[in-house]
Amino acid sequence: MSSPARQEPLRQGLTYGFLAYLVWGFFPVYFKALHGIPPLEVVAHRIVWSVLFLLVLVAATGCWGEVRTAFASRRVLLTLIGSTTLITINWLVFIYAVEQGQVLQSSLGYFITPLVNVLLGMIFLRERLRPLQMISLLLAVTGVGLLTARVGAVPWISLGLAASFGLYGLLRKTAHVESLAGLLVETILTGPLALAYLIWLGTHGQGAFPAAVDQGALWLPLAGVLTATPLLLFAAAARRLRLATIGFLQYLTPSLQFALAVFAYGEQFTPTHMVTFILIWSGLALYTADAVRTFRNPAASRDAERT
């Protein structure tokens, strides 16, 4: 058995990651309620309300020192500028996908993202895969390949979501800043632009909030909590887990979105989708079994930095 000191970060990381991906899995339900509101305006609201929510959290926890340290470090600040850009792109693409009734393609993007995480971990962090992990990765690659072929065209929504969030996870893992402070810095970096855009919309009579009640505009303030909470959980998980582990945990989000697209929103479900689902979850089962075995017998993963 591994020591309690080694087990605790793993338990915390798995819990944080599971909760983050669970919330993200049900995001289409929220953004469907904002039907008719332009994606750029929704993203601006997400940023502004997130700043307010995070300021309250930082004030309550008293971690202003960590925020000042992040702004004072050129390396950390540059990393957070990069991560801010990537997560903003990810938000725009995802909201556009929901608005266009492409939840199934967004789920494909998040099915691909774990593969991007594994690849980035191997390239940049020198993370190694054990035999069962490699088999599980090949099963997932096969499943995603089948689903991609079924789309019949270049799935730019899927690829954009996968690339932007995979790189975001890499940058947040390497940023030497705690999750709450780092997320506040990220939102502050884009906050002034988002606020200026919303003010411009308001002065030109084009803003949805609070006028467009029929389009779900009154739900917009909730965007701060829904945006910040899973990102905080994800950042905390990323600091405690290998990118490969994060990658396979992430299958929870696209699986939930997959189910919503097919059973709630009536998007097409074919035998190819069924085969893809079976392959991906078979890979996840193998990876989980390997992770449990390693957790109980850490000697089996002595070549890995962390599990």
From TrEMBL:
<feature type="transmembrane region" description="Helical">
    <location>
        <begin position="154"/>
        <end position="171"/>
    </location>
</feature>
<feature type="transmembrane region" description="Helical">
    <location>
        <begin position="43"/>
        <end position="64"/>
    </location>
</feature>
<dbReference type="Pfam" id="PF00892">
    <property type="entry name" value="EamA"/>
</dbReference>
<dbReference type="InterPro" id="IPR037185">
    <property type="entry name" value="EmrE-like"/>
</dbReference>
<feature type="transmembrane region" description="Helical">
    <location>
        <begin position="12"/>
        <end position="31"/>
    </location>
</feature>
<feature type="transmembrane region" description="Helical">
    <location>
        <begin position="132"/>
        <end position="148"/>
    </location>
</feature>
<keyword id="KW-0812">Transmembrane</keyword>
<dbReference type="InterPro" id="IPR000620">
    <property type="entry name" value="EamA_dom"/>
</dbReference>
<feature type="transmembrane region" description="Helical">
    <location>
        <begin position="76"/>
        <end position="96"/>
    </location>
</feature>
<feature type="transmembrane region" description="Helical">
    <location>
        <begin position="183"/>
        <end position="202"/>
    </location>
</feature>
<feature type="transmembrane region" description="Helical">
    <location>
        <begin position="272"/>
        <end position="292"/>
    </location>
</feature>
<protein>
    <submittedName>
        <fullName>EamA family transporter RarD</fullName>
    </submittedName>
</protein>
<dbReference type="InterPro" id="IPR004626">
    <property type="entry name" value="RarD"/>
</dbReference>
<feature type="transmembrane region" description="Helical">
    <location>
        <begin position="217"/>
        <end position="236"/>
    </location>
</feature>
<keyword id="KW-1133">Transmembrane helix</keyword>
<dbReference type="GO" id="GO:0005886">
    <property type="term" value="C:plasma membrane"/>
</dbReference>
<feature type="transmembrane region" description="Helical">
    <location>
        <begin position="248"/>
        <end position="266"/>
    </location>
</feature>
<comment type="similarity">
    <text>Belongs to the EamA transporter family.</text>
</comment>
<keyword id="KW-0813">Transport</keyword>
<keyword id="KW-1003">Cell membrane</keyword>
<feature type="transmembrane region" description="Helical">
    <location>
        <begin position="108"/>
        <end position="125"/>
    </location>
</feature>
<keyword id="KW-0472">Membrane</keyword>
<feature type="domain" description="EamA">
    <location>
        <begin position="13"/>
        <end position="148"/>
    </location>
</feature>
